[in-house]
């Protein structure tokens, strides 16, 4: 895999992770909500105008463009498993930003992901 292809994949993964973190930050601002017919419009507007949510959606849009560029250079059977790097990024970023727990069980899972990504990237 070329350096450009790897950079595109990593950029796509990081944009996807940033999108998830921004969506979580946005829902933290808005708080718990339920969708029903009666509140669909007010909740939808609240979500639409929350800056973190908007930023997360923008990250998704850019990540799709970057991902298409990556797929034009790398087989999907190699590129797609590398998306799991996002789990690692999100676990530690969520701990740092939101105080979410990084348990021993999660660390073992992350270890398996690291080994898997290494094996896939070398193939």
TrEMBL record:
It is a multi-pass membrane protein. It comes from the Bacteria. Residues 53-121 form the EamA domain. GO terms for cellular component: plasma membrane. GO terms for biological process: lipid A biosynthetic process; lipopolysaccharide biosynthetic process. SUPFAM superfamilies: Multidrug resistance efflux transporter EmrE. The chain crosses the membrane at residues 52-71, 78-98, 104-121. This is Multidrug transporter EmrE-like cation transporter. It comes from Rhodocyclus tenuis (Rhodospirillum tenue). The lineage of its organism: Bacteria, Pseudomonadati, Pseudomonadota, Betaproteobacteria, Rhodocyclales.
């Amino acid at each position: 895999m070329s350096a450009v292809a790897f950079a595109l994949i990593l950029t796509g993964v990081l944009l996807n992770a940033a999108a998830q973190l921004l969506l979580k930050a946005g829902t933290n601002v808005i708080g718990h909500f339920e969708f029903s017919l009666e509140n669909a419009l007010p909740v939808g507007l609240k979500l639409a105008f929350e800056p973190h949510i908007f930023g997360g959606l923008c990250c998704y849009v850019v990540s799709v463009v970057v991902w298409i560029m990556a797929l034009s250079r790398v087989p999907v059977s190699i590129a797609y498993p590398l998306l799991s790097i996002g789990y690692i990024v999100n676990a530690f970023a969520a701990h740092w930003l939101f105080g979410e727990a990084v348990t021993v069980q999660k660390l073992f899972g992350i270890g398996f992901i690291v080994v898997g990504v290494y094996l896939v990237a070398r193939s």
